[in-house]
Design goal:
Number of strands: 0
Distance between the termini: 16 Å
Helix content: over 70%
Radius of gyration: 10 Å
Length: 41
C-alpha cells in the first residue's frame, strides 16, 4: 500500500541515490507525488 511504499522509500533512500539516474527518477517520482498530493500529508 502507499504508506508502506513511502516507508520503504524513506528506509532505502541511500540505496536509491547510489543507483543510476533512471532508477532514481523512477523511484522518487511516485514517492514525492505521494508526499505532496496525499491527503493529510
Amino acid at each position: 500500500d502507499l504508506e508502506a511504499d513511502a516507508d520503504w522509500y524513506l528506509n532505502n533512500l541511500n540505496t536509491v541515490f547510489n543507483n543510476d539516474p533512471e532508477v532514481r527518477e523512477f523511484v522518487l517520482k511516485p514517492y514525492f507525488t505521494y508526499i505532496w498530493f496525499s491527503p493529510g500529508a
